[in-house]
Model the fold of this input.
Amino acid sequence: MHDFNKLCFIGAGNMCEALLAGIISSKFFPVENIILSDIRKQRLKYLEEKYNVKTTMDNKEAVKVSDIIFFSVKPQNIATVLEEVGELLRSDQMVISIAVGIPTYFIESYMKEEVPVIRVMPNTPALFQSAISVLSKGKYANDKHLNFARELLSCVGDVDILPEKLQNAAAAINGCGPAYFFYFIESLVDAGISVGLNKDIAKKLAVQTMEGSVKMLKESDKSPTELRRMVTSPGGTTIAALEQFEKGAIRYHILKAIKAATNRAEELSKQLMK
Ligand SMILES: NC(=O)c1ccc[n+]([C@@H]2O[C@H](COP(=O)([O-])OP(=O)(O)OC[C@H]3O[C@@H](n4cnc5c(N)ncnc54)[C@H](OP(=O)(O)O)[C@@H]3O)[C@@H](O)[C@H]2O)c1
Done:
């Protein structure tokens, strides 16, 4: 058993459900030690029936009976939640927040006590237990809190730890990343259709090729550059395609896109905290 035995989620939406499913299937917490709080009665009823979990519409009640308070509301609702429960939080509890762009100092500023806060940037593959989450600790959190949060987030995938100043940069890769890969697959499918394939086979070829390539990246000790060279023979078909990528300066545009996403995350954080 861990030091923290009771867990509540404030905000019982998609990410909460993904984590709940992961936690239950890994038996990290007994389901009777978890309580979900949300403003949507119907949503709570659905989760109660599906997972046999306790629910409440009273955030304060959930916070009072829990050791770990998981903030899983949208970033624009976090201030309302903090106004409601911030002063109730105690230093023997621990907060884990997945609200994108909300710094730990903002959360800490609503609290009377020195409450440990861990900020997390997960991503949507959490819904399929295949996330990569990035964790950072706040002013009052120590390695015990960080390790506990790491174990908890491991229920929905891989976890890495970074200094908080790099959260927005990480989010530009892992948070937005699924959209980049879907966009690339979408483009490959359209391109496949343009050279005579039907949509279904084009999609199957593109998706399975991506999956196989990811497996190669994970299981071989070769770099992406070496693996790319292995399929790029002189004067061949792959180089003919890659030359077009180079002409379109795709690499440059990817760099600019990641910078734009990082800057936007910073702007949004500032707006949310006004
Ligand atoms: N989904 C992603 O791709 C993703 C990836 C990384 C991180 N995140 C972060 O994860 C968090 C949750 O995202 P999500 O997609 O799970 O959101 P979601 O599905 O909208 O869930 C949030 C839930 O919280 C409820 N809520 C709003 N105000 C509340 C309050 N004062 N007290 C209690 N519950 C309240 C919402 O109800 P209403 O709908 O009625 O407002 C909704 O049911 C966000 O902060 C997001 O930034 C999401």
About this structure: Residues 7-163 form a domain with the Rossmann fold fold (CATH 3.40.50.720).
